[in-house]
Amino acid sequence: MGVIELSWWQLAMAASLVVLLSLCIYLARLGLAGSLLLAAARTAVQLALVGLVLEALFSVGSLPWVALMGGVMLLLAGREVMARQQRRLRGGWSFGIGTAAMFVSAFSVTVLTLVAVIGPTPWYEPQYAIPLLGMLLGNTMTGVALGLDRLTEGLWAQRQLVENRLMLGEPWSRACGGIRREAMRSGLMPIINSMAAAGIVSLPGMMTGQILSGTAPALAVKYQILIMFAIAAGTGFGAFLAVSIASRRLFDGRERLRLDRLGSGRGR
């Protein structure tokens, strides 16, 4: 069975549902109608542009262009991590820590999956590399952002408790141990919930897309299991690195809590 083509007017029918929802929100005075419409418009424009870029990239298929695309995606993800924090580290540390953690985790897991598991020829085949990296970066970005936000907010809210434990002689790692655990838990919870509900409560997006495009369900399931495990590894390592580096940054060499290294962010 072939893929059923979608025309622009059919997409417009789907968009009308979002417009109808925004109208209901506006009439209910919930204050989210504008944000919903803006997000829908951004989705359409961004995905349309990405489609054009990917078509050009697939036709070229060279490693430098794939690496450039991956670098741009990484930098944008790092910016999103920084923007989602209520209290961010000063001096660009939030951007640097988030970007570095995602580079080490998401890129490493992507390359390992391409080379050792999927094995396309060449290994950087854009058809596999870019979608896989995009899924890992998107989920790792969420985990890193949640972990950093929970860490900084927790240290700010419990600063007196942490400082009291430091004065009692505890090392910084133990003084903020509970906050670090909560930060890691916050970063990992979305992917844990997704894996727990996959196939029972919901069909994951990649699997659904493959089935709609005509892929055999058995093959789609194998790819989805691979992607879920890769996302879990990338998100876990990324959140662990980000929380570890950021928590160390908030204590100096004399093991004093340095909340002066935190600024304020607008958050989202």
Task: Give the overall shape.
Answer: globular
Radius of gyration: 21 Å
What's the number of extended β-strand segments?
0
Content-based structural category: mainly alpha
The DSSP helix count reads 10
Low-confidence stretches: none
Strand residue percentage? under 5%
Helix and strand sequence:
HHHHHHHHHH
Distance between the termini: 43 Å
Largest sheet: none
Q: What count of structural domains?
A: 2
Task: Estimate the helix proportion, in percent.
Answer: over 70%
Average residue pLDDT: 89
Descriptive account of the structure:
The protein is mainly α and 268 residues long. The protein folds into 2 domains: 1-60, no CATH class; 62-261, no CATH class. Helix content is 75%, strand content 0%. The chain contains 10 helices and no strands. It has helices at residues 8-27, 33-60, 63-83, 93-118, 126-157, 159-167, 172-175, 177-197, 205-212, 217-249. Helix 5 runs parallel beside helix 10, helix 8 runs antiparallel to helix 10 and helix 9 packs antiparallel against helix 10 (217-249). The longest helix has 33 residues, at 217-249. It is globular and about 65 Å long.
What topology does this entry show?
Elements: H1 8-27, H2 33-60, H3 63-83, H4 93-118, H5 126-157, H6 159-167, H7 172-175, H8 177-197, H9 205-212, H10 217-249
Quick overview:
By secondary structure, the protein is an all-alpha fold.
